[in-house]
Fold this protein.
Amino acid sequence: MPTEESGHDLRHHGDAEVRDDGSALVDLAVNVRADTPPVWLREHIAKSLTGLAAYPDGRDARAAVAARHGVPVERVLLTAGAAEAFVLLARALKVRRPVVVHPQFTEPEAALRDAGHTVDRVLLREADGFRLDPAAVPEDADLVVIGNPTNPTSVLHPAGAVAQLAWPGRTLVVDEAFMDAVPGEREALAGRTDVPGLVVLRSLTKTWGLAGLRIGYVLAAPETVAELERAQPLWPVSTPALAAARACVAPRALAEAAHAAHRIAADRAHLVTGLASFAERGVRVVSPAEGPFVLVRVPGAAEVRQRLRDLGFAVRRGDTFPGLDEEWIRVAVRDRATTNHFLHALASAVPRPPTHPTR
């Protein structure tokens, strides 16, 4: 249920759509690689299991991530998924006025509220294509959180516009969990050391299908990393997750991720084209979409979601995101065959506009 403070169910995530009675549905609700990790990555992780008797040692993985982004190891913190980083930021940093730019992933705001903070929101507008206006963020905000590309809108904000949010005395948190799904990672701020107060969060669970392993990292100034590290429990990242981190930032993996980003872009274009055919039924796609998902306005979305479930498909409800209402759904990008089956089901789920007899 929505919390009294927030007015939205900040704890609702896409995986809720495919639990229990939804486990047999085609999953278009979760923005994680649909198939299992590639064989070479599974084998690499499996080899690490022989070392489980020893406590995890994250030094090599930390160095590998630092090398991948061309920064010193002191600027890297490994975390149990990007979600842990939100909790660390909320608990460790001394913040007076945190602002979250919505619509976006709700866990940052939930973590801030859980840590006792009063959170202000900047709501981007559908009329503006949910694009960022840096001037809309209050000047006295000392913590600003934004996603890029943003979940659920799939909007990719220009790096220059995001960097304009950096102010002296302010921490700017940019969630780049889906940036490796963008060809060339254009507009990325990861690895930048010239933006004051910048904290970039990355996840390795999306592209590589590792949501169950929990691995991500923070890129920030050494003093910020040290502050967050003090708030972590001992050995927060498991040995298999550390093995995955090393593997996923190696040259072979980066090349595979780059190839996957282009494939995702092509599959997304196919999905968007198919959704456009429902325009006469009131269906609208937020465009241009740049992430591995699209945000769609659908009249009577709650009923459409239920009809889709009856037809074997799970999509993500949108009304739990601040700035959206019950007419929104988020749809994950999948291969063309899956998308075609989904579009066929959508044709049955979305009502046709009433026809008026001619005289």
Summary: The chain has two domains: 14-35+254-349, 39-251. The first helix runs from residue 39 to 47.
